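Q: Sequence in, structure out?
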Amino acid sequence: MKKILVLHGPNLNLLGTREPEIYGSMTLDDINCLLQKDADEAGIDISFKQSNYEGDLIEAIQQSSAYAYIILNAGAFTHYSIALRDAIASVQTPVIEVHLSNIHKREEFRNNSVIAPVVVGQICGLGAGSYTAALHYIITTLKGAESNGK
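A: Exactly. Output:
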């Protein structure tokens, strides 16, 4: 069975109460349940980890060899963590960057993603739909690889 790791970065544990006008009213558990349901339907194993600590996220990325993909919302680390960028670049596991809000329409310091150059792609601005779009891309890609005998 293919496995996917979803990594949630700093402050995402506060979803539902933290600036709902920007991040929406869904909690992190709501998002995880939505993803779990879609993964179950596709026959894919999915794991979740949230951390407010950069080192925890780096270690999870470094230990990701058992996973087919990582979906990563790095939160504020997106904009300045060269260490997180280097961890992504150092592993074979493809990473899809997601954000609930459109980082390109926010404060200037949020417009730049230092991890974008080393990820497969970036999905932002769709709320929880950013996560589900990433998951659906992965499911489609994995099914395509299976049908091609990979």
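The chain has a mean pLDDT of 93.
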